[in-house]
Design a protein that fits this description.
two-stranded antiparallel sheet; three-stranded parallel beta sheet; globular; 35% helix; alpha/beta
Length: 231
């Protein structure tokens, strides 16, 4: 079934523009010790992401616009914080290369922005994800390989679009649980910092003018977060 971008969800993402203050306690970013933030607009080029009602509203276009607005908001409020984008045009960039943008620039924080989709036009809301191995939803009693891994696999399958992916990801098969188990120690390295930031974003997503609703912080095995190796 063709899935359409949930515009309500996109608007919820826009509240990230209002949450820039969590990035720094002072204008120079010194409050949390942040000097460099990398914003990653998901998908791009030959990878459109979730389809919209028209080609121009495919996920790759919407998240690029949101990412640029978010970055400009940070720059205006905190000139001491350097903002870098993994892409600034409609260009395909592999998951590894996205992560390397952050690593090569010694980023303190990596934020990947995506737009959810749903075949139900009445669907609305937002979600916040960090690198991890289970869902924080108490109602989710299934093993994370049954729920979260399916989400991660869908995002991670883009690696086959990359040239030379067989060599670059020779130790990673997005379709096997064993590949994800091997990252257990890395999940823990920045878990606390990621969780603290995610909690701040959730707080901003649950205030007026947005419709208050409970938002869980999901833990997922997204390869781009694994390779970024930072909060």
């Amino acid at each position: 079934m063709m899935r359409k971008i949930d515009i309500q969800t996109l608007m919820m993402f826009l509240c990230l523009l209002l949450s820039a203050q969590v990035l720094a306690g002072q204008n120079n970013g010194g409050g949390l010790g942040l000097t460099t933030v990398v914003i990653d607009p998901g998908h791009g080029g030959k990878d459109p992401g979730a389809p919209g009602q028209t080609a121009s509203t495919a996920e790759k276009h919407l998240v690029l616009s949101v990412s640029k607005l978010f970055g400009e908001k940070i720059k205006a409020a905190y000139p001491g914080v350097k903002v870098i984008y993994t892409r600034s045009t409609d260009k395909f960039i592999g998951l590894h290369d996205r992560a390397m943008v952050a690593r090569n620039n010694d980023a303190d924080l990596f934020i990947s922005i995506h737009c959810n989709s749903n075949s139900d036009k009445s669907a609305k809301g937002s979600s916040v994800h960090i690198l991890g191995q289970k869902s924080d939803r108490k109602s989710n009693t299934t093993d994370y390989f049954e729920k979260n891994m399916s989400v991660a696999q869908r995002e991670n399958e883009v690696i086959i679009m990359e040239e030379g992916y067989e060599t670059r990801y020779k130790h990673f098969d997005p379709n096997t649980p064993e590949a994800y188990i091997g990252y257990a120690l890395q999940w823990k390295a920045h878990y606390e910092s990621s969780l603290l930031f995610a909690a701040e974003v959730v707080d901003k997503l649950m205030v007026s003018p947005l419709v208050p609703r409970k938002i869980a912080i999901d833990q997922d095995i997204f390869q781009v977060l694994v390779e970024a190796n930072m909060p």
